[in-house]
Structure formats: structure tokens, C-alpha cells
Fold this sequence. Notes:
This protein is 68% helix and 5% strand. It has helices at residues 29-42, 53-62, 80-89, 108-111, 129-143, 147-154, 158-171, 176-189, 193-206, 210-222, 226-239, 244-256, 260-273, 278-290, 294-307, 316-328, 332-345, 350-366, 370-386, 393-405, 409-422, 427-439, 443-469, 473-486, 491-508, 512-528, 534-544; strands at residues 21-25, 46-50, 67-71, 98-103, 121-124. Helix 16 (316-328) runs antiparallel to helix 17 (332-345) and helix 18 (350-366) packs parallel to helix 20 (393-405). The two termini are 32 Å apart.
Amino acid sequence: MAGVFFNSSAVGDHVDFRDKKVIIIDDFQGIRTMLREMLKAFGVLDIDTASDGIQALNLLGRKRYDIVLCDYNLGDGKSGQNILEEAKIKGYIPTDAAWIMITAEKTMDMVMGAAEYQPDDYIIKPINEGALRTRLEKIILRKAVFREIDKAIRNKEYEQAIALCESKAKDDEVNAYDLLRLKSQLCLQVGKLDEARDIFTRALEERSLPWAKAGLGRIHFMNKEYLEARHFFEEVIEESRTYLEAYDLLAQTHEILGDLDRAQEILVRASEMSPNVLQRQKGIGEIALKRKDVSVAREAFQQTIALGKYSVLKASSAYIGLAKAHAEAGQSGEAMKVLEEARGEFKGNAEVELHAAVTAGDILNRTGDKEKARQSIEEAMKVMERLGGKVATPVALDAARVLLDLGDRDRASTVFSQVIKNNSDNEDVIAQVKDIFIEADMQEEGQKLIESSRKEVVEINNKGVMLAKDGKLEDALELLRQAASKLPDNPRILLNYCQVIALYMQKHGKSSRLLHEGREMAEKVIKLDPSEKRGPMLLATLSRMK
């Protein structure tokens, strides 16, 4: 298969624009009219327009477009980049659609945005009709091959999508590079790490490619081989200084290895090249806060909040982080103001309400206002009860720690137990629980709680497995469904529930509801623990039942 990774995408055919659906997004009526006339001259019959991000996303959410022409700067409100991010995250843009960003100037900040949210091309104003047509034709002809693959991905038929990528790559030298790269991404997504590794290795045999080398690093990372991962990510950065994804991955690796100084340094270097990536700024803030680097943390969280103003990626955790940074600097009043701002910005969001209440309780407890701290924690516990115990682990740990500090050992133990059961095989989380109990001079009590909570998970799993072995599949389903609902982040529970779903359907026939549940469980396991081999196997089994 030598040579397939480096063929040009140039094509000589012409596109029939008559069946293309197009949306023009620009805040100036004159530009919208000009582009509409150009498209009509190409033969386009179906043209919609939007003057701002809200209109654009409403249209994108209701209709499948083949071409999107979007201005980068839309005045107040969402930018073109914000619209592109949200459209991709919400699945509004099919793989074979052409997205062209129109801009007065193509700046470094614009081009160096998050790699996964890049448009297909940029066009600099003033717009030339011939250049626009040529760009559109090249993109459409190159991406038409992805139409069938996109349909499989939208239907979550990942096995079929992977097979299509492979078969099309053999017959289409022009698009083989993109097809095999997409196949590698799909393989990583569904946990087929060996197949992904093969693609990356074959690509690197022909040439040193940053995406392939980073892919090998990612596989080591997913397998928890962090030293090997670090080596690959460092090589990518050394060879391709602007391949920013490798900086993010390297920073994550350093953080896991305990080198927070180096992790922060790497993210700061990346942000200097591309300062407008929200998630990277948030990462800087989180690491700086762990390092007690308060000034950097505050600046990064403030930047994150500013970038998130009109973004679908707007993060409540940036507000919580900023409040904690203010508190670390001894500015508890500023911290409480930020928490109130978070409640207002995310009104009605119970998880944000919980996180804000827990953080407020922690800050008030540290400043010595025990009574108000207890009031905040009472508020937090009521929200936690409303959420049915389905609480993010860091928030639950914070709540349990504050409860322990306030002398409420019983409720602290209840929350800790839930965290342990939900993360019974996650040694990093278990270590955090141990550290909190050691700090409270309750090491023995903590160890007993860890052992009893883990034992409870083992007993639930064993009971479910025995019911299934005895042919009592309905009873096994009900037991493990309840366990998965209470412990949604425990891979072992999710895997066993998924296995029983497969056994039940093999015996009683396909159930759309169970198939959907099972696939969701398998996909979640792959995300929680990519090194777990049963996740991809069960996902493949369920996919064949469709």
C-alpha cells in the first residue's frame, strides 16, 4: 500500500451545484446578497441565509447542508468559530459537507485554533467568484467519498464505517490519506487500538507524520504507558512546533506523571501560539491552581470565562476555579462573588448549583465561618440528593472533605463510600480518598471504608454474573441496571450489564431499547478505560445485532 498517504487531492471534474443545499452566514446584507448571486450563477437552487449565530445554529440544527459559507467576524455575539464548534459538537455538520470560513484577514490566532474544529478552507475578502467555485469544487469532490461513511457514523455503525474507510482507501488513491486517517480516529474511538497502531505505523514507514506519531503516543497514553507516550509527544513537538494537539497531550502526560511544573510550561507555550482555545486556558488554570500559582490561575480562568461567553464550550468549572484561586489569594469576598456569578450564568443547572455550594462551604470553613459553611453544605447535600448521587467525583470528594472538616463523619462516610464504589478500580481516586483520611488523622477508618465499599461492588457484580449463569437473565438485567444507574462511572458494573444485555438479546431477540443502552455502556467504558479490551469487543457484538 506504499504511497497512498501522499497523493494530491486535486481533481479535474466539475460539480453539479443544482442539488446542493447552502447556508450563508454573514452579518452584512450586502455580502449575503453578493454570495447568493454567485451561488445562483453556479446553479445552486436551495440557499438559506443567517445574519448571526443564533439564526445560523437554528437553521443548521433543522436542515442538512452541503455547503456552509460563514464569516469569521459576525460582530457582537457568536463568531464564525463559535458556530463551527457548536455545529460540530452537536452533530449538525456531516463529514462530507464543505465549510468555508470567510475573513478579512487570516491571522495566526484564527488558523491555530482547536484542530478538531477547523473549517475546510478560508477565503480572504474581497471574494472572487472563480476562486470560490474552484475551492468549493475541490472540497466537494474530495469529500463526496465520505458520504456513506458519514451515514454509518451518524447511525453509530462504527464497524461499518471502519470497513468502508478501509475498502475505499484501497480503490481511491486520491483520498486514501484522509480515509485511513479517519479510520484511525474511529479505531481509537471504539477502542480498536491494534488497528489504529497499524495505520500509524504504516504511515510512519513512508514519512515522519505528526498525526501518526501523535497517534502512537495516544495509544501508549490510553494503555497507561505514560513514559512511552511522553517520548512520542516530545518528538512530535520537536519536529512540528505548531502541532498543538501534541502539546495538550504532553501536558496531560506530565500531569499524570506528577510533573505539574512541566505540564504548565507546555500549555503556556501552546497558548502563546494559540491563545483563544478555551479548554487549553482552562487546563492552565487548573494546573496552576494545583501548584498554588494563584496569579497564573486567575488570569487563565478569567480568559477561559471570556472565551466562553458565546461558546458551547462555556465551562462552569472555570468560575469554580477562579473562585478557588481568589480564595487561595485570601480574597474570599471576590471568591463568593464569582460563585454567585456562576449560579446566574448557569441558572437551573443542578450540577453547577452543587459545585458552587460545596466550594462556598469550603471557603467559608477555611475562613472560620463554620455556621455559614454548614448552611452551604446543607444546600449542597439537598442538591446531591436531587441528583440521586450522580455527582462528578472531584465535586463529591470536595463535599466529603468539607463534611469531615465540619465534624459530620456519618454523611462524609456516605459520600466517600459512593465515590469509592463508583471508582472501585481507579487507584488514583482511591489514593485521593486515602490522603483525605490521612490528613484528618483517620487513616484506619478510611482503609476500612475503602475495603467495605469495594467489597460491596464485588458482591453486586458476582450476584449479577451468577444470575446470568443460572439463566435468570431478567433478574440479572434488573440488578445490574440499578447498579449502573447508581454507579455510572464504574467500568466493571457497566461491562457486566452490557454483557448480560448481549446474552439476553441473543436468547430473546433484539430490543431497540436494550441495544441502545448496551451500546451506550460499551462506549462509556471505552472512554473511561481505553485499555479495557472487553469494551470494544462488546460494542462490536452489539453492532452486529443491529
